[in-house]
Amino acid sequence: MQSPLSKNRVFRFAPSPNGLLHLGHALSAILNRDMAAACGGRFLLRIEDIDPTRSRPEFEAAIYRDLAWLGLDWETPVRRQSEHVAFYGEALERLKAMGVIYPGFLSRGEVKARVEAHEAAGGVWPRDPDGAPLYPAEERVLDRGEALAAIAAGRQHAWRLDMDKARALVPGPLDWSEAGEGPRGETGTVAAEPERWGDVILSRPDAPASYHLAVVLDDAAQGITDVVRGQDLFQATAVHRLLQSLLGLPAPAYTHHGLVPGPDGRKLSKSNEDTGIAAYRERGASPADIRALLAGYGFILH
Length: 302
What we know:
With 302 residues, this protein is α/β, with parallel strands linked by helices. It is built from 10 helices and 10 strands. It has helices at 23-39, 57-69, 85-98, 108-120, 144-152, 163-169, 211-221, 237-247, 277-282, 287-296; strands at 10-13, 42-47, 79-80, 101-104, 158-161, 174-178, 188-192, 201-203, 226-230, 253-257. It has a 3-stranded parallel β-sheet with strand order 1-2-3. A 3-stranded antiparallel β-sheet has the order 4-5-8. The model has no long low-confidence stretch (mean pLDDT 93).
């Protein structure tokens, strides 16, 4: 029997139009649509095209085509991030007023050179859960006037979260409800440790909002109650819970599913077109074949 509240559950699939969808995307889309249908809930589609340098109209059109071929339907209108730039900017200004973000001026090359020099001298540079080096912390205390002058002079910068100040404003323990599992089998109530990510980027010159900031804002704006996505984003949920707490946003329930392995056993990539949904269709596969293929990897589909 369905819970009286089940029809209020809202799921979403939120791809970026920077390449063709592959089997991993098919899995997430099918799981979200099937879970919504099973509880009488809603299924939304969101186009995460916040990065204009990588997003292309032909890939967005391919997303609609591939999902429709899979037999999925979704509510309209579709939310497109590029149409809500001011919305993200307002949230960034709120975080500025709270004093928890600062401009970071070091380029990736400068950070890489610093890390390499430090490690060559025998030091150990801290890294985030994905293995990337944490951003150096000295710009947290850069004189505000000096920083604003550098920005006014046109110096490239990204707005970063001051993790220490953010955690000071959200001092208590953070956690989330996990109905799936993490890479090490984490499930149930999972402790969030956003500090492991260091001073993450929230906005940069080529994108008004990073994935971390945009996703929590979009989920709240669309009333998303259930986030169903791959295990590659499991650890990032800690940052999302911190931003939700800072901005007073509701926390959805999370379900992280396993990843479809590529031919080399690694995570699928949009650059590998052989595993694209369109490639399977062109080789004569049916939507039922895609579901059977995913089931063959051990994924349970409704």
